[in-house]
Amino acid sequence: MGQRTVADPQGVRSSEQKTSVGQSSPLKCSLFTTETGWCGLLGRDNTVTRLWMGHHSRTDAQESLQKFCEQNPELKEEQIEEADWFPELRERLQDYFQGAWVDFQDIALNLPPLTAFQSRVIQALQQVGYGELITYGELASKAGSPRAARAVGTVMAGNRIPVLIPCHRVVAAGGKLGGFSAPQGTSLKAHLLQLESRGFTE
């Protein structure tokens, strides 16, 4: 596959600019297939609340949504509409999972309440580009807490929006992959890193 770039023409926004919370429209869910399995998007307007990926079937993806809603009481009263929500982002994700070089930094994110440390970690991670790697310790240092590598791992494990918040680019010292909480575990993490590596060379 030849290298393709899919990016917003307006360029990259700061973490503060692209993170918003809106309650004015219904919450919608989109389930779709990719080269790495079934994925799902949850959000409203053009703001993403949750992304899940790597499921073996549509049923598995639906069960992941149900579990997420059960774990977040504020969603239990929501009427979630299943639709082809945010088709532009769906197409960009499908391109990404085929090996295209895609920039997601223009996408607005609805994040849960974050501590100051968590916010710094997320903002530092957003600066790690396509095909790049950073260790937990290096990310902790960039977030201003050089001894907090383990705490960085906890932030990564709680990431609700993988790929858009690229926790797969965070690895352990010595070249080890470290953890990955998505379905398929570290094999999926390794696959994503391989995809990004090929994106520069093919």
Automatic annotation (TrEMBL):
<dbReference type="InterPro" id="IPR001497">
    <property type="entry name" value="MethylDNA_cys_MeTrfase_AS"/>
</dbReference>
<comment type="similarity">
    <text>Belongs to the MGMT family.</text>
</comment>
<dbReference type="InterPro" id="IPR036217">
    <property type="entry name" value="MethylDNA_cys_MeTrfase_DNAb"/>
</dbReference>
<dbReference type="GO" id="GO:0032259">
    <property type="term" value="P:methylation"/>
</dbReference>
<keyword id="KW-0227">DNA damage</keyword>
<dbReference type="Pfam" id="PF01035">
    <property type="entry name" value="DNA_binding_1"/>
</dbReference>
<feature type="compositionally biased region" description="Polar residues">
    <location>
        <begin position="12"/>
        <end position="24"/>
    </location>
</feature>
<dbReference type="GO" id="GO:0003908">
    <property type="term" value="F:methylated-DNA-[protein]-cysteine S-methyltransferase activity"/>
</dbReference>
<protein>
    <recommendedName>
        <fullName>methylated-DNA--[protein]-cysteine S-methyltransferase</fullName>
        <ecNumber>2.1.1.63</ecNumber>
    </recommendedName>
</protein>
<dbReference type="InterPro" id="IPR036388">
    <property type="entry name" value="WH-like_DNA-bd_sf"/>
</dbReference>
<dbReference type="InterPro" id="IPR014048">
    <property type="entry name" value="MethylDNA_cys_MeTrfase_DNA-bd"/>
</dbReference>
<keyword id="KW-0489">Methyltransferase</keyword>
<keyword id="KW-0234">DNA repair</keyword>
<keyword id="KW-0808">Transferase</keyword>
<dbReference type="GO" id="GO:0006281">
    <property type="term" value="P:DNA repair"/>
</dbReference>
<feature type="region of interest" description="Disordered">
    <location>
        <begin position="1"/>
        <end position="24"/>
    </location>
</feature>
<feature type="domain" description="Methylated-DNA-[protein]-cysteine S-methyltransferase DNA binding">
    <location>
        <begin position="116"/>
        <end position="197"/>
    </location>
</feature>
